[in-house]
Design goal:
By secondary structure, this protein is α/β, with parallel strands linked by helices. It is built from 11 helices and 8 strands. The longest helix has 18 residues.
């Protein structure tokens, strides 16, 4: 039998147990089953949790536990969660922005026979199939899916579309623009702040290439520069080349120092504030950036 849902698998097992004990038909799944939903996110998981709760409000008889696993950044983390979900017959719900992590999760879940749902998909339909219940279809049960939720979805889309200098001509629409050399945490910060509702774009500073002119045309208080000390940056990039086989000045310490000197000269000339990300978490940096923007924004 192929493509059995967790509900059908449970029902098959429960039926076999009841028949073996001579007790006839089993009770309904809602009477006995405690469902578990694992929420995976490369940020805080707040968006996915709100979506799941909004959908579960339509299934009031189901006994469901939600387990949040935020900060997903490695395949090994996904493997651990998949194995736990396999043991408990859980459902996977995710908001992963990195394409490689998304693909790895979907493939591994398929191999383990687990249900795997992207929160931007038809949540109610899939939950209805999985729980074996029809939605109440009563509007207003939860209001988290209204303006705040859709603002976050729009912000995430904006961050993806304006990552690494893409569509730079539209940066005048951004609430915040991050600049910095490669591997200074521009993308993770952009996505994290997007989950909090900020429209964020980021632009790389590359030796031999002039920054896009729009950086000097938009309100300068919106721009924050990121940096990392040379030794730390060399280590971060060295870890990256093991996967992507990048070489040359990208990992050469002297080349990195020259790259940072050039970037800092651009930052100082433009008057952009500089945030050192050498040993700072994304959460700490996001808090500092929001406070900095509030202080710099014209009254």
């Amino acid at each position: 039998m192929q493509d059995l849902t967790p509900l059908l698998l449970w029902w098959k097992k429960a039926t076999e147990v009841m028949i073996e004990k001579g007790k006839g038909s089993p009770m309904s799944p809602q009477d006995q089953k405690e469902w578990k939903i694992f929420i995976l996110s490369d940020a805080t998981g707040e968006t996915a949790l709100k979506v799941v709760k909004a959908a579960l409000a339509q299934f009031q008889e189901a006994n469901v536990e939600t387990v949040i696993r935020p900060g997903i950044a490695r395949e090994s983390q996904i493997e651990e969660i998949i194995e736990e979900a396999k043991r408990t017959g859980g459902l996977i719900v995710y908001t992963l922005v990195v394409p490689t992590l998304r693909a790895f999760l979907v493939q591994l879940a398929r191999e383990r026979g687990l249900e795997c749902i992207d929160v931007l998909g038809p949540m109610l339909i899939r939950l209805s199939d999985w729980l074996g219940q029809k939605p109440l279809s009563r509007p207003g049960l939860r209001r988290e899916l209204e303006e705040d939720y859709f603002r976050r979805i729009m912000a995430v889309e904006f961050a993806i579309e304006h990552d690494d200098g893409k569509r730079a001509e539209e940066l005048d629409k951004a609430d915040l623009v991050l600049v910095g050399v490669s591997r200074t945490t521009k993308t993770p910060l952009s996505i994290y702040l997007a989950y909090r509702g900020w429209l964020v774009g980021n632009v790389p500073i590359v030796m031999g290439i002039e920054p896009p002119s729009i950086l000097y045309e938009i309100p300068q208080w919106k721009i924050v520069a990121l940096t990392v000390n040379a030794e730390r940056l060399a280590m971060i990039r060295s870890n990256r080349i093991r996967r992507f086989h990048v070489g040359g000045d990208y990992v050469d310490l002297d080349g990195i120092k020259e790259e940072l000197r050039l970037a800092h000269r651009i930052f100082y000339q433009a008057g952009w504030p500089i945030l050192d990300m050498s040993y700072k978490s994304v959460e700490e940096a996001a808090q500092e950036i929001t406070e900095l923007l509030q202080a710099r924004k014209p009254k």
